[in-house]
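Bit of a strange request maybe. I'm writing a small parser for C-alpha cell strings and I need a real example to test against, not something I typed by hand. Could someone generate the C-alpha cells for this chain?
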Amino acid sequence: MSISVKDILTDKGVHPSEEHLEKIEAKWAEIRQLKGNLENANLDDADIALRNIPGGDHVA
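Reply from user aminoacidic:
Good idea to test on real output. This should exercise your parser:
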C-alpha cells in the first residue's frame, strides 16, 4: 500500500490547491518512473566523476 502525495503533505501541515496538487503528483510520478529506470540500469561506471581543472585542458 502506498501513501498518496496529498496524505504526506497533509501530515506535514501543507495544504496545496487542487491545481498544485495535480502538478506535484505528476512530477512525483515522473520521479518514480526515473528511479525505477535507475534500479534496473547497469551502473558499472556509476563511480566515474568529472572535474574541471582551469588551464588543464591543453597540452604544453
